[in-house]
Amino acid sequence: MTRTRSQWWLYIVLTLALLAVIAPFVWMVLGSFKTQGELLQNPPTWWPQAATLDNYTRLFSRLNFSQYFVNSTVVAVAVTAGNLIFCSMVGYALAMLDFPGRRALFLLVMGTLLIPGVVTFVPLFVLVTNVGLSNSLPGLILPFLVSPFGVFLMRQYISGLPRDLLDAGRVDGASELRIFGRIFLPLCGPALATLGILTFLGSWNNFLWPLVVAQEESKYTLPVALALYSKGQNSTQYGLLLAGATVVVIPVLAIFLAFQRRFIEGIATTGIK
Q: What is the pLDDT of residues 79-132, one digit of tens each?
């Protein structure tokens, strides 16, 4: 009986936590169908009193939405692909290869995780500007092709794979690159899915770096465009902002739902709890 009661209390607490998490998203979606006046009224309403599609109409007609969507997609996909390739290669080297300074290199990677991004923001911007990549999509992509977290994640996962696979590949005369690509990489599905989802999410929602680097409208990503064009002459157009936020969330939600099992498995098997 005591165990049953404790389980019910656990379910209640988890249900309340779930409601607290999803409530802002539900309000965002419902708010995207409200008028500006209804969004500003007090007390606020949950369900739209007079549902309208004007916010979505203005979103797709007023903004160059297709260009911003393509920019965001190109940047997010390129950054995600770069992290999947390079982080897995570095993680494989740190986990399976014996070379001088391997431990020091891993400690250096771990140390970079402790450095806030704002500390390296200005030097990174100066570097990108000096090499002529400001106001370009490569300038939005190249600085984030490898992440310390991605290296750590892949290294932890690959360390748990049997080292006998490496020895068997070497006995068969396979090169290190072939061993990595044909033997270890196919076994890293859960970790790659986890890294891919987290990287895509971070890149898709990145705001500050594209805001500074992209100086022309043709290089804007969706978060930057929504933030800039949702400002009216006298006030923020909250309906337009909520409609844009809803559209921005859809690709990330779809990717997570498609790979959620791999994501959970990757988190569980890399020691990150």
A: 999 999 999 999 999 988 888 888 899 899 888 888 888 888 888 999 999 998
> N- to C-terminal Cα distance for the chain?
31
Task: Give this prediction's pTM.
Answer: 0.81
pLDDT digits (tens, 9 = 90+) for 213-239: 988 888 888 888 887 776 655 567 778
Task: Fill in the amino acid letter for 132.
Answer: G
**Separation of alpha carbons 192 and 157, rounded Å:** 10
What's the token pair of residue 45? 């309403």
Please check whether residue 10 lies inside any domain of the structure.
Answer: no
Q: Which residues pair with 183 in a beta bridge?
A: none
> Domain of 227?
31-41+50-269
Residue 25 within a domain: no
The Cα–Cα gap between 41 and 13 comes to 32
Q: 28 — phi, psi (to 5°)?
A: -65, -45
Q: Measure the CA–CA gap between 161 and 178, rounded to whole angstroms.
A: 17
Amino acid of residue 208: L
Up-side HSE of residue 64: CA atoms within 13 Å toward CB? 14
| Contact yes or no for 140/209 (Cβ under 8 A) | yes
- CA dist., res. 96 & res. 162, Å (int): 10
Category of 173 on φ-ψ map: left (φ > 0), alpha (ψ -120 to 50) or beta: left
Do 263 and 46 meet the contact criterion of CB atoms below 8 Å apart? no
159-207 per-position pLDDT tens digit: 888 888 888 888 888 888 888 888 888 888 888 888 988 899 889 988 8
CA dihedral over 223, 224, 225, 229, signed as positive or negative? positive
Q: What's the CATH number where 85 sits?
A: 1.10.3720.10
Q: CA-based angle 90:96:97, to the nearest 5? A: 80
1: in domain? no
